[in-house]
Every structure is written in structure tokens, then in C-alpha cells.
Request: fold
Amino acid sequence: MSTLVAATILAPLTSAALGMAVRRRAELRDLATLLGLGAAAAASLALLFQVVANGTHVVRVGGWHPELGIVLVADLFAALVLPVALTIIFVVELFAIGQRRTAWGANPELAGPLLGVMTAGVSLAMLTGDLFTLFVAFELILVSSYVLLTHQGQRAQIRSGMTYVAMNLLASTLFLFGLAFVYAATGTVNLALLTERIPELSDGVRLGIGAWFFVVFGTKAAVFPLFSWLPDSYPTAPTTITAVFAGLLTKIGIYAMIRFHTLTGMDRLGSVMLVIAGVTMVVGALGALAQSDVKRILSFHIISQIGYMLMGLGLFSAAGTAGAILFLVHHMPVKTVLFLVGGLIENEQGTGSLDRSAGMAARRPLIAALFAIPALSLAGLPPFSGFVAKFAVISAGIEAASTPVVIAALAAGALTLLSMAKIWIGVFWGSTDDADIDREAAPGNRRTMLAATGLAVAGTLTISLMAGTLFDLSRQASDDLRTPDAYISAVLS
Amino acid sequence: MILSRSPIFQLGVQSASPLAVIVGVYLLFAGHNNPGGGFAAGLVLGAVVILRTLAGLQKPTFGPALITGGTLLVVAVAAAPILWGDAMLDQKVVSFDLPLLGTVKTGSALPFDIGVTAIVVGLVIALLDGLSTSDSLVSKGNPA
Reply:
């Protein structure tokens, strides 16, 4: 099992190094990248089965005691989210290989190796058992994301890239300050030890630390007042890059928040979180409605959906946290698929603008179908995974009698459906003889791109089918986080 | 390069760079027990590369190779203990007697630090490369 944990981090790093070495030879580079990312995804899936069967597994890096060294903790929460994240990256890389010859494709000489580095960062962020390694993992992800976002050097990318870099540097600096506070107050940054020591602190210090990290992780997750960097920067990047960012990066922030704030028992921050969650949902959904470009609409929806996860967390009940975890698992693939379909649309039409594209449903029924399934899922219609996830979160809200946030969630759901309908009407309906369509758009390898998107849609359908099992696992993961005795003893003994 | 016409700058960089390299190498070895380490060494050596490039003394192009080699070395050191059934990144420490230097203690942390140094220097070179040429890793180029 230790080997599996190591493989999820080391395999993508190796593939990044090898891909860098053979970056000018397309076949070898793609093979190295796919093998590395595939190996990591397979290892994480095996890890999930192992953890379900045998419980939390702890790796002491270098054999040091947790008081001194770094631990990697594969508990149920990490093991549940990690395979989803790594599979997404694998599928997107597949899509990227098909897309490369178009103007929207990322430069594969860079994208392959950097995705490898980012994957290693994602694995590390999810598995790490201490806050400082979490910081390092965030930096690993961010440094590669800076390059991926701006490497094409277009004006819009550089401009929004500046905001992105500035916001994330600010959050990283605050993170570092927060680490110093935590260490000064408790003498450790290990999460298991913090779980024991933070509840013993005085209320002011304890909630101060909680609020500080809420701001740090909230900036990464793009919650309400701190989201401005997201809808400007994401749509400018190449499709594949946006798809990975949309599916993963903000979610890592939420993941860290769920882990930290639940383990350390920050229940008193719940009411603040619920208010911000409600505002985030509605503002994101309203913002989406005002846009007229597929990728911009989808970018605003990321923000709206973050609100649901924050709501689940803010309830600080077993059902709420379970709902947040399930939402995370459902949301990552659905969001990625929608951006991939957005990429397919751009590829076909030469634009993602709603005004200048029409009639896709008649010309490309397959793409229409690939869009419809995740779009309905995102809006939360049964029988798709979005329904189960939203139902879990909202019923937890009703259970906790938090009426305002429940109403906000339902309203945001309706608004989401509305803007999905907007995309549908703009892109898929109407007549096709639009003179504005850019016929010069290079087609790329359409079959590979369609296959990758199809694979991802199949993945989201699998999540819908397995919703019952996943809900049980989320419930168990949430119980493990809320009563962390098993977590503490697994790490420390 | 911009500053290549200033003989003072050029001569200054030329005479300072061997010293800076010694400092960098010292940091690499000192890092085991004292402040320093692979990352700090990489920064010092990277600064030397930047200064020498600015002074027009050299223009290294082997950045990607250093990144690749460094990453592979780091991964190999991290993964090797697993083969022997130890934890990832576990260390082997060896000490031996040398003439003049006395007892020298070193271990598998050294190749790890060297790998980190190589990655940092490689990144600096790749960055310079991207800033100075149109045909480089960081250029927009045509997607191949």
C-alpha cells in the first residue's frame, strides 16, 4: 500500500521528467505522459479499494515520527477524491493529444510535462498529513498552473494571468503567515497533532486560526468576495488547461477546507460559512446568466457550485459534510466534461460565443448529447449525479433548519438550469448558415477528442449509477473526519 | 546582451563567478546539518548563470536536460528505499575516512540535494532561454 501512495506522486513526476527529455518527439512524449498519468490514476483507484477494505493507511516519509517528519495519510476522504481527480487529468491529456493541431490547443511540449508536475502536486495535496506539505503541494500546482495559463503569450492571457498570479501569491503569503500562527500557538503543523491541540486553545486564537485559513483556502476556492480572479483568467487559457483547472484547482481549496476545518472542529465558523455559501451560489449563478460565451458561463458556474460544497461544510453536521464530499466527487468530472465540450464547440465553430454559433444539434448531434448529459447533471436534474449531490446537501440543510441557505441553493439551481438552456439555445439550436462561422478552424483529431469526452461522460454516468455506494462512502468519510480518533491514532501510533 | 559593452560589469562578473560557484557548492554540502541545501545552492548557481548571461559571457542551453536529469535523480532517490521495503525517501548514511579531510559523513540525501540543485539551475536557464529567444520552451510558437 505504501507503494501505491508513493506511485500516485512519483509516477507523474517521472513522466514529467521523461516527457521533458523527449519533448520534441510527439509519440514518445505522449506515451510517457499517458503512462505516468495512467499509472497514477490506476494506483489511486487501487488505493481506494485498499482503504475501503483495510482502513486508513499512513506512510511516514523517510521513516520519521510525525512530530518531526512528513506523513502521507490515505484516509477514506483522500482515497475517495484522489481517483476522481487523477482520472480527470488522464482523460484531459487524452483530449489534449487530439486537439493539438488547433489554435485552441495547448503547446504539447509544455502541457504534457507540466500536467505531470501538477498531478504530483494534486496527489500530494490530498494525501499530505501536515499543513506545511500542503503549502508545498499548493505551490507545486500553482507554479505549473501559471505557465499553463499564460504560455501561449496572448494579450488576454497575460493580462488575466497577472490577476491570477497576484491573487494566488497573496493567498500563498497568507497561508505562510497562517502556518507561523499555527506553529506558534500549538508547536506543530501536523494535522493529527493539530486535531488534538487546536481544541485546547482559547476561543479567540482557535477561531482566529480557523477564520485565517478560511480566507486562505477560500481564495484558492474562489468563494464570494475572493472570486474575481477566476472568471477572467480561466476562459482565456487553452480548453484543455481550463478543463483541468475548472475540475481541480478550486476544488483543492475546498478539499483542504473540508479537511482542516472539520478535523479541528471549527463549528462556530459555520454560520459565517453558510452566509458566504449562499451569496457565492447566487452571485455565481447570476454572473453566469449575464455572460454570452460558453467558457465564461461555465467559469461563473464553478463559483456557484463552490457555494454548495461550502454550504455542506458550513452545516458542520455529519450529513452536511457527507453532502459536501459527495458534491466534490460529482462536480469535478461534470465540470471538466462541460469544458471539454466547450472545447469541441470552439473547435467546430471557430468560436465559443453564443451570438456567433448556432445549429450544432443538427450538424453534430453527438456533441449535443455529450453536452446535454453533464449540463443536466450540473443543474441537478434526476437521474444524474448532480441531483444526488444537491439532494444530499440540501436535505442536510433542511435537517439543520438553515432555511435561508436552502432557499439560496434552490434558487441558484434554477438559475443554473436557465443558463444551461441559454447555451443550448445559443449553440445547439437555430439555423446553421451563419456567415460568421470561422471555417478556417482546424479540425484537430476529432475522433480522439470525441473519444476522450465520451469517456468522461461515461465516467459521470458511472458516478450517477454508483451514487448509493458513493454516498455511503462519503458518509463514512465524513464520520471519520468529524470523530477523528481513528485518524489520530493511525497517524501517531 | 544589454550589458555586454560595460567592461567593468563584465570583468566583475567574470572574477566573482568562481567565488559564487564555491559558495553555491558549499551550500549544497552544508545543507545536511546547517543552513543551506540543494535549493539554496541552486539559487546561488542560478544567479551566477543569470549574471554571466547578462554580461554576455555565455548562453547555456542545457536547461531542459538539467531539469530532466534532476527530476529523475530526485525521484530515483525517493523511490529506491521502497525496493528495500523501507519508507519512501528513507536515507542511507555512510561515513568513511579520507586523507586530509578526516571522517566524512554523507548519505543518500546528497544525490537528492544535487537533483534539486540541477532542477533549480535548469529552470533558471530555461527561463533565460524563454526571455531571450523566440524558439524556446516558453515561447508561444506553433503547437507541433
